[in-house]
């Protein structure tokens, strides 16, 4: 099957992988888009895991002000080198993060940043609700875990669906950026300010 530029473009937009990698994946799987996506996802995940231990101290503090000036965001995104930190794609990624935070209002970077007392309070509340439904104990446990997962998705930046494309999470975008730029990257912290609120929402310092 002939691999067209349109097919390569479609795969690149879906995965964030480099053009050459998209072309090779399509060639390898005879133009099968789904198999190529799986292959690139696995390749990207391997790249992310390989680079995860590298120090990431360069980067940018990106800001975003919502039109009208009622909401403002600052987010620190780190990478390994100043070269990548000045890359247009890296800067665009950081800007998309700031915009997403303004709209989706996450409270933490990831689950590990949530204080234990908050998690336990929600767990207890969900347990009470689940038991009140009269479900058997083995089902109650699953209900509680499901509600906790939903809570994590609502409050954790990395788990939220991207505001521009809800088929992707912020973690998906981060992984794709790491795979494409071939450097470790992390979202260190963020703060969101809304006019009239008592204080900004600090997203901690974990990525």
Summarize it.
With 207 residues, the protein is of the alpha+beta class.
Structure description:
With 207 residues, the protein is α+β, with helices and mostly antiparallel strands. It folds into three domains: 5-51, Helicase, Ruva Protein, domain 3 (Orthogonal Bundle); 58-110 and 156-202, Tetrahydropterin Synthase, Chain A; 115-154, Orthogonal Bundle (GTP Cyclohydrolase I, Chain A, domain 1). The chain is 53% helix and 17% strand. The protein contains eight helices and six strands; from the N terminus they run αααββααααββαββ. The chain has helices at 5-15, 19-28, 33-51, 82-85, 88-104, 116-132, 137-155, 170-181, and strands at residues 58-65, 71-79, 161-162, 165-169, 186-194, 201-202. The chain has a four-stranded antiparallel sheet. A two-stranded antiparallel ribbon has the order 3-4. α1 crosses α2 (19-28) and α3 crosses α8. The longest helix has 19 residues, at 33-51.
Shape: globular
CATH architectural label of the largest domain: 2-Layer Sandwich
List segments where confidence is low: pLDDT < 50 over at least 5 consecutive residues.
none
Strand order of the largest sheet: 1-2-5-6
Number of helices: 8
> DSSP strand (E) fraction?
15-25%
Rg on CA atoms, Å: 20 Å
SSE blueprint:
Layout: H1 5-15, H2 19-28, H3 33-51, E1 58-65, E2 71-79, H4 82-85, H5 88-104, H6 116-132, H7 137-155, E3 161-162, E4 165-169, H8 170-181, E5 186-194, E6 201-202
Helix pairs in contact: 1-2, 1-3, 2-3, 3-8, 5-8, 6-7
């Amino acid at each position: 099957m002939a691999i067209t530029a349109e097919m390569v473009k479609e795969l690149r937009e879906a995965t964030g992988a480099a053009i050459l990698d998209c072309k090779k994946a399509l060639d390898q799987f005879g133009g099968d888009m789904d198999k190529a996506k799986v292959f690139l996802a696995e390749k990207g995940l391997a790249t992310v895991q390989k680079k995860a231990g590298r120090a990431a101290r360069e980067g940018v503090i990106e800001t975003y002000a919502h039109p009208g000036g009622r909401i403002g965001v600052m987010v620190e995104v780190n990478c390994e080198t100043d070269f990548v930190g000045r890359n247009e794609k890296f800067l665009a990624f950081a800007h998309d993060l700031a915009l997403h935070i303004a709209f989706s209002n996450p409270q933490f970077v990831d689950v590990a940043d949530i204080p234990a007392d908050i998690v336990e309070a929600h767990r207890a509340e969900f347990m009470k609700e689940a038991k009140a439904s009269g479900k058997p104990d083995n089902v109650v446990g699953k209900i509680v875990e499901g509600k906790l997962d939903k809570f994590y998705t609502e409050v954790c930046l990395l788990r939220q669906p991207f505001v521009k494309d809800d088929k992707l999470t912020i973690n998906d975008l981060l992984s794709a950026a790491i795979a494409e730029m071939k450097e470790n990257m992390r979202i260190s912290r963020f703060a969101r300010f809304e006019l009239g609120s008592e204080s900004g929402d600090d997203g901690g310092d974990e990525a």
